[in-house]
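User: structure tokens for MIF4G domain-containing protein, please.
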Amino acid sequence: MSKSQATCVCSQSSSSRHRSPSESSRRKKSCKQPRRTSIPSPLQLTSTKSPRADGLYKPPAKLHLVQTSLTDSSTIEYQRLEWENLKKTIIGRLNKVNTSNLPLIISELFQYNIVRGRGLFARGIIEAQIASPFYTPVSAALVSVINSKIPQIGDLLHAIAVLEMLVSLLRNPSDDSVELAIELIKECGQKLSQGYPRILDSFFSTLKNLLHESSLDKPNPPIPSGLDLVDEDDQYKHTISLHDPGELEPMLDESSSSSSNSDEEEKQDDRIQ
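Assistant: Done. Predicted tokens:
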């Protein structure tokens, strides 16, 4: 070490001895360099879940390069990326729709090419209804509004389609198909009765004949098999009305030593014989 270097070190150490604690702490803070943070671009923020341009997963960095390099909208790669973005947008909006945000979701969907993605829209509606049947009226309201503006989408849901489903279910009836037809009529019967009352009556008569005359299994039969023990001619039918005044017999709830007990036993024996 040279003499000049030694004097420089000594001067620095001596000057540091005479510094106040506040100055030394301030100097230490100034010596710390701020940590650099990389701010992602808006394109990177929107592509955290990478769409698959060619059916294969691409990391976000590689996908960013692909998106920035695609400028020609007529290429297949560009159209695939647009399709994936449209799919993510439609499915995301359908998963968030409810009664309170329905007008907002409708306005947002109209900003995208839902005519091109009407298949995605139909599949998304079906999947959302299966996942949350409670929101079926909300989905129906959404479809009705979009159908008023874009009838191509309304072709997917029509009363004739429901009638064709009922005909198909009851053409070769089975336990499952009849049960499905009954559930379908429960959901759509009121609407069908307004537009097609005669056709709906024909379905009711078909179901009635199937339930009474066919060999379909009945989950709730009037009398279970093996318990129909009394012939119809021997049955005693009571006529009781809910409006008739009831006759109370409280003595039947208690033990009694009446002379009429033996008479009643004799009458009972005569009836059994």
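User: Anything notable?

Assistant: Residues 2-18, 28-54 have pLDDT under 50 and may be disordered.
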